[in-house]
UniProtKB/TrEMBL annotation:
An MF annotation (GO) of this entry: N-acetylglucosaminyldiphosphoundecaprenol N-acetyl-beta-D-mannosaminyltransferase activity
Identification of the protein by name: Glycosyl transferase, WecB/TagA/CpsF family
Keyword terms of this UniProt record: Glycosyltransferase, Transferase
Lineage per the UniProt record: Bacteria, Pseudomonadati, Pseudomonadota, Gammaproteobacteria, Chromatiales
Entry-linked Pfam families: Glyco_tran_WecG (PF03808)
The keyword Cell membrane is assigned to this record: no
Length: 250
């Protein structure tokens, strides 16, 4: 039986996410793996919401996800502005290794797709060292010309779980457009996960993550991209959310 809070939804700017904690997210993942259908797990942060504002296709894909999990302080603040509370930070970078450990115990096969040349391969090698018994049956770069060839690689590998790291909204759209042919039971859109697992990008210290200030670390590591994302777009996002709240619109 699935936990009751697996079905707790919170709607912001036209997107409804699963407002659950990490334990419930794990239970939901297990239920999806044991079901007979195909499922998609995506993550929602402030940047995703900001992009979905003017991208109906992306917004619809998020709303159709089997599981849409909350990620980051921006979404937490937006949820509070709309009078609710985000129960947990179920970001993909922290949750994915937990799911991989469970997959190893259950014997599920995994495939990594994304990143520049060599990133997915290095991430796979690192996780094989970190998680005894993990079955990563294939890995491939996120830069390719033929969807058909990549899908064939994934399906031939026998993977039951596919981690796609292409950034938003590309990864969600790629999964959605190709889901009919992709055979893994669960596909996840995981952003920069493989960059972290490969060691290409250093992760913020634990204390910063616990204080919900990992965004500061990301700005320090990659100021060229992250200043715009967290300071310029982030400020615009919060102002927009406050305005929507004042206008009484969700």
């Amino acid at each position: 039986m699935q936990p009751k809070d697996c079905f707790l939804k919170t709607k912001i700017l036209g997107v409804s996410y699963d407002n659950i904690d990490g334990n419930a997210a794990v239970q939901r993942f297990l239920a999806l793996m044991e079901s007979s259908g195909k499922s998609n797990i995506f993550f929602l942060n402030a940047d995703c919401l900001w992009k979905s504002r003017k991208d109906k296709e992306y917004r619809d894909i998020l709303n159709q996800a089997s599981l849409l999990l909350p990620d980051g302080v921006g979404l937490r603040l937006a949820t509070r502005i709309f009078g609710s509370r985000m129960r947990d930070n179920c970001n993909g970078t922290d949750l994915s290794p937990v799911l991989m450990k469970i997959a190893a115990k259950k014997g599920y096969k995994i495939y990594f797709l994304g990143g520049r040349n060599g990133i997915a391969d290095q991430a796979a090698e690192n996780m094989r060292r970190r998680i005894p018994g993990i079955k990563i049956t294939g890995s491939y770069s996120g830069y390719f010309d033929s969807d058909k060839d990549v899908i064939e690689r994934i399906n031939t590998s026998g993977a039951e779980i596919l981690f796609v790291a292409m950034g938003v909204p590309l990864q969600e759209k790629w999964i959605s457009h190709n889901r009919e042919w992709l055979e893994p039971r669960v596909c996840l859109g995981v952003g920069a996960l493989l960059d972290y697992l490969s060691g290409q990008i250093p992760r913020a210290p634990l204390w910063m993550r616990q204080l919900w200030i990992e965004w500061i670390w990301r700005i320090l590591v990659d100021p060229k991209r992250m200043v715009k994302r967290y300071l310029i777009d982030g400020f615009g996002f919060i102002v927009f959310v406050i305005w929507r709240r004042i206008m009484g619109k969700v």
